[in-house]
UniProtKB/TrEMBL annotation:
Statement: the UniProt record of this protein carries the keyword Cytoplasm: no
A Pfam family this chain is assigned to: DUF1995
Organism: Diacronema lutheri
Keyword Cell cycle: no
Signal peptide from the UniProt entry: 1-21
Keywords linked to the UniProt accession: Signal
Domain DUF1995: from-to ranges: 68-336
The protein's name: DUF1995 domain-containing protein
Amino acid sequence: MPPSAHLRVVLALCTAGAAAGAACAAPRARAGLSSVAARPRAAVRAASEPAAAPTAAATGSDELALPPASFEALLRQAQASTLASVGDGHRLLEVEFPPLPTAILEDASSSAYDVSDANVRLAVRYAQGLGKRVAVLVPDRPELERAIKVAGGRQQPYANVSLHSLTGSSPVLSGGGAQGADNSIEGFFSRIFNIERLGKANVTIVPEAEIYVILTVSCQELPDVERLWAQDVAPNGRKAIVLFNLKLDTQRGDLGLPAFPRKALQHRFLSRVKPAYYLRSRSYSLSLRRPPFLLPFSGALFRVYPGPFQCLLDTGNGRYRMVRQYDRRPALGEFKEDLRQALKVDPEDKGQASDVLTRGYKTKTWFEEDAEGLDESDAWRT
């Protein structure tokens, strides 16, 4: 199978195939929604099965990493790239990929619980295959209780993996503890009115954990992740944090809005996050002067540490073509423009005005631009 077809399989797996379902681990359905409830239960259970440990580090040769053919292959790539990153001394990592097939993610009947449950299953399997002591953290106690149910009713689904809440009380395992969250009036209004609370709220510290895997946290909860970093990971020098499928690009864009953390969080903390594994698909459209007048196109940005970022154009029929490699993470506008240029549209079908309307005058977000040079690290770009 050509490399381009590998990526297509992951991003467009069908929802009904039982054989494919065993690998893609579809989430538990909402009651009463026939289109989702019809998914085979074998596919749901598959996400709780252990993933094979990576047999080699992420590609360090001149050959580019191949896009994965299944979720099992994807997890092995993510595990290998994580271990390679940690081995190179990185302690704050990003792992990002679609937790479900695109057809399910775009299905109106799918809920946020479908996505979060899938992330829990994948995170547990990912953590199990790292071969280290891993604490998987969700935001609070209610989500912890749900995560434990998704993981088969066990707070410790594997010998090296335990589930905890990032803040608030949680069941205590031997050698581990959970400290209470800031549930005071001050803590409540601090969250509502965007008041920095660094050092005022307690977070869960698991002394025996070598790696923390953080999932399903919102933008408002990112300061709690920073507190965990400041209290246990940064001073330790041997632990690491993995931000798992948090869609940080979207969350960075929310910083500075009312009731959200300040933009300074990007400069002092999120700028330090190294993308160890990154797979994001994007869809766009191009306006034309002649039929069909609107040309849809799509592609994916793919990276396996320590390799480069790859811009992949969807050429149809399950095939992708690599358009460009980047040593540094491209701005979203640059990625889109590279895909657009790769379409090789007849110049007569478009003009300068059309190009401007399609691209817009501003092609970078505030955090991509960092015009004032406030980022304390460029790790998130490399």
